[in-house]
Amino acid sequence: MVKIVSSEFDPLLEVQNYQKQQQALTGKYGATNVFIGTMRDFNDGDKVKGMSLEHYPGMTEKQLELVVAKASKQWAVLDTLVIHRVGDVYPDDVLVLVAIWSVHRGDAFDASRYIMEQLKSTVPFWKKEILIDDNSRWVEKNTDGYCESDESGC
């Protein structure tokens, strides 16, 4: 499942509730991998006090669903939950949740890493940072997809 939300969310509660609703998972998974990304108060050597996250409704979800589908084909993924925040956010706010349910931990870790890296490098989100001095700037480039090993499938 992929969701884009414009308000704060509790990532651990989202995982717990989703897992309870997915009765088909009961007894099938041996690993749940959870990645939670939060906003930090610095970037490129500057203090950041806020950020506005924009997206292209419909296109963003579709691209995320394609990324999730590719990960599910490449690894033994039973289910996924990806939630991404948009709108105005502040340091320590949760921005993204990637949760993977799999038979084995290796697949869960690798699929989670792949989804997160693809999200950062290919999914249409735009970030405008508000610096501590009230100047603002668009983040020109998301981080490139990063691969620790050839086995990650990136």
UniProtKB/TrEMBL annotation:
EC number, UniProt record: 2.8.1.12
Gene3D superfamilies attached to this UniProt entry: Molybdopterin biosynthesis MoaE subunit (3.90.1170.40)
Domain of life: Bacteria
Keyword set includes rRNA-binding: no
Pathway info: Cofactor biosynthesis; molybdopterin biosynthesis
Catalysed reactions, as listed in the record: 2 [molybdopterin-synthase sulfur-carrier protein]-C-terminal-Gly-aminoethanethioate + cyclic pyranopterin phosphate + H2O = molybdopterin + 2 [molybdopterin-synthase sulfur-carrier protein]-C-terminal Gly-Gly + 2 H(+)
Protein name (database record): Molybdopterin synthase catalytic subunit
Native source organism of the sequence: Candidatus Methanofishera endochildressiae
